[in-house]
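Quick one from the shared queue. A colleague (R.T.) flagged DUF4240 domain-containing protein as missing a structural entry in our internal table.

Convert sequence to structure tokens.
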Amino acid sequence: MRGDTRRRAYAWVGTALLAALAVGCSSDPVEPVTTEPWVEGGLPEYCGGRGGDLASFWELVHASCAVAQDGDVRQGEALEEVLSRLPEDRTAEFGRTFRRLNNDLVIITEVADDLCAPGLGLAEDLGTDYRSWVIAHGQDAYEAVLDDPARLRDFPDATAGCGLGEFFGAAATGNPVEGEREQSEAAGPALSHAAAAAGQ
């Protein structure tokens, strides 16, 4: 089922990208803003957190964020490396917490759909991936949009994250994705271009 959904998503992305190019959208890949530090001499603000009840969970997310901030393939690989050093019960607990936080973010669906696929929506799989992408940005970003989903529109890379997040989510839940990295890396920029064109 997921494979069929993915094929439909890629087909839609391809069509949307052609439409975007037709209205003058650049075909250059879109790089997430967060690949560069926002704060001079420190980590991106997206990697920030305040601890709390889930401090140990966010520490692991932030450890991956210190390596890469794409919220997808590179950060997923960093998270896999971090989790590989932990006992099995700790990684299992991390996965359960990740799923719960992802489910809690369902409240951002309307805003995410409007940003990434206006009039169509991201559907279940791509919506789950996008929520994983948000979690990858760290505690401060997560709690901001959980409190007010409209804050997602303030993320400078909100549309750059469209089509991303699957690999980070897979690493977090212990189900790494194999053999589809190039497709994911191509789909993310394509969906981002489509979202940008729709917003023009």
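Confidence is low (pLDDT under 50) at residues 5-41, 180-198.
The radius of gyration is 16 Å.
Added to the table.
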